[in-house]
TrEMBL record:
NCBIfam families registered for this protein in UniProt: Lys_methyl_FliB
Source species taxonomy: Bacteria, Bacillati, Bacillota, Clostridia, Eubacteriales
Name listed for the protein in its UniProt record: Flagellar biosynthetic protein FliU
Keywords: Cell projection, Cilium, Flagellum
C-alpha cells in the first residue's frame, strides 16, 4: 500500500530500526512464521532456480488458513524453533538475497502494530521486541502522540474500530476516543504513584460502564469531568493465591524462552515462602524507581490494544487484563529481579511480553478464571 494515508503514532515510532542479527532475542526464533498469499505467489514466480528450490523446500500451504493476508502459507519451523531462512549470523537470507519487498506481511510488520480506527491508521511498537522495548520503555519522558501522513507498505491491520457505530459486540464504541484519552491521562498523572493510578483507572472504567448502562445521555459529560486525582481503593484485589493459580495456567511446555521458564518455576516455588511478605513490601516501597517504565509499558499497551475495547464482552474486561499484566510483571520482579537495574527490568518485560503477551489461549483462560473467581458478569 503505497498511497498516503493518515497515521496516528507515538513520537517514539520514528526512532525504530530493526537491528537484525545483532538482536539478542530474534523474532525469527521461537515463533511460527506465516506467509500471506501475495508473498507466497511472489516466491512461486522467482526465476533463480536455487533460491526457488530453497524456498519451496521450507514453505508449505497452511491447511488451517484463517486469512489470506496473513497465513495462506507457513514456514516449516524445525525442532529448534529456528526459521530456516536465518543464516549463521541470524540475518534473514530472503532479505539479503531478494530484498525487503520479498518479506511476508508478518515478517515486514513485527514489531510494528497497525490498527485502523475510523479512517486513521494507528501505528505503534510491540515491546516483545528487545529494540522496541528499549525505545518505548527506557525514556523517562511521557509517551506523546502525533498525526502524520505517510504510506504503510506491507502491513496487517490487527484491529478495526468504527466509532460511528453506537455499539460493536455490545461495546459502546462511540465513546472510544474519550475513554482512551482519559485513561491515558490517568496513567500519565505523575502526581500519583503507579498503583494509585491503576486503581483510579479501574474506578474510572467501572464508573463509565455504569454511566453508559444507566445514564447514557450523561456519559460524555461524566468522562470529561471525571477527577483523575480522586482517592479510591483497589478496584480489584489481586491476591497471592490468584496470582499463583494464574501462573499455573501457563503451559511451560509451549514456552520457548528458557529464561522465562526458569523465572516461572522459581516464582511458583517461592510464592509460599516466609520471605514473600517482605519481598512484596520491599517491591512496593521501591517500585517508584520503575514508575516511568511501568507507565510507558501500560500507556503503550493501552494504545496498541485499543484499550479498553481490547476484550470482547465489556470495557471492564479490558481493565482486568491490563491489571493482570501489571501484577504478573510485579510479582516476577519481586522474586527474580529484586534491586534490578532499569535495563534488567526492561529486558524482563520484553521476555514476558514475547512469552505471554501473544499467547491468546492463555490470556482467555486467565480472563475467564478471574471473572469466575470474582463472580464478574
Amino acid at each position: 500500500m503505497n498511497k498516503l494515508v493518515k497515521k496516528r503514532q507515538p513520537k517514539y515510532f520514528k526512532s525504530f530500526k530493526c537491528i537484525g542479527g545483532k538482536c539478542e532475542d530474534s523474532c525469527c526464533i521461537g515463533w511460527d512464521v506465516d506467509i500471506d498469499k501475495s508473498t507466497f505467489n511472489q516466491y512461486e514466480n522467482i526465476k533463480e532456480s536455487y533460491i526457488k528450490e530453497f524456498l519451496k523446500g521450507n514453505i508449505i500451504l497452511n491447511k488451517e488458513c484463517e486469512d489470506f493476508e496473513i497465513d495462506f502459507g507457513k514456514v516449516s519451523i524445525k525442532e529448534n524453533k529456528r526459521c530456516p531462512f536465518l543464516d549463521e549470523d541470524n540475518y534473514c537470507v530472503i532479505h539479503s538475497k531478494l530484498g525487503e519487498e520479498y518479506l511476508s506481511n508478518v515478517c515486514t510488520l513485527f514489531p510494528r502494530v497497525v490498527n485502523k480506527v475510523d479512517n486513521v491508521y494507528e501505528v505503534s511498537l510491540d515491546v516483545a521486541c528487545p529494540e522496541a522495548a528499549r525505545i518505548v520503555l527506557a525514556s523517562g519522558e511521557k509517551i506523546e502522540f502525533e498525526e502524520v501522513e505517510g504510506n504503510l507498505g506491507k502491513h496487517i491491520i490487527l484491529n478495526r474500530l468504527n466509532t460511528s457505530l453506537e455499539e460493536l459486540n455490545w461495546l459502546p464504541v462511540e465513546f472510544f476516543y474519550e475513554v482512551r484519552n482519559k485513561s491515558i491521562q490517568i496513567m500519565q498523572n505523575r502526581d500519583l504513584k503507579i498503583e494509585d493510578r491503576i486503581n483510579i483507572l479501574g474506578d474510572f472504567i467501572k464508573s463509565v460502564e455504569n454511566e453508559i448502562d444507566f445514564n447514557y445521555d450523561n456519559a460524555s459529560k461524566f468522562i470529561k469531568e471525571y477527577d483523575i486525582n480522586k482517592n479510591v481503593g483497589e478496584s480489584l484485589n489481586i491476591t497471592t493465591d490468584l496470582i499463583k493459580n494464574i501462573i499455573k495456567l501457563i503451559d511451560l511446555d509451549n514456552i520457548t524462552s528458557e529464561e522465562f521458564k526458569k523465572d516461572t518455576i522459581s516464582l511458583l516455588n517461592n510464592l509460599e515462602s516466609l520471605s514473600y511478605l517482605k519481598e512484596k513490601i520491599s517491591l512496593r516501597d521501591n517500585i517508584e524507581k520503575y514508575n516511568f517504565i511501568f507507565e510507558n509499558y501500560l500507556v503503550n499497551f493501552m494504545y496498541n490494544s485499543l484499550f479498553p475495547y481490547s476484550e470482547i464482552e465489556s470495557i471492564y474486561d479490558g481493565y482486568i487484563m491490563l491489571l493482570v499484566r501489571y501484577e504478573l510483571i510485579k510479582y516476577y520482579l519481586a522474586f527474580n529481579y529484586e534491586n534490578s537495574s532499569n535495563k534488567e527490568v526492561i529486558k524482563f518485560i520484553q521476555v514476558f511480553s514475547k512469552a505471554i503477551g501473544h499467547h491468546k489461549t492463555y490470556l482467555i483462560k486467565v480472563l475467564n478464571y478471574i471473572k469466575e473467581e470474582y463472580q464478574i458478569i
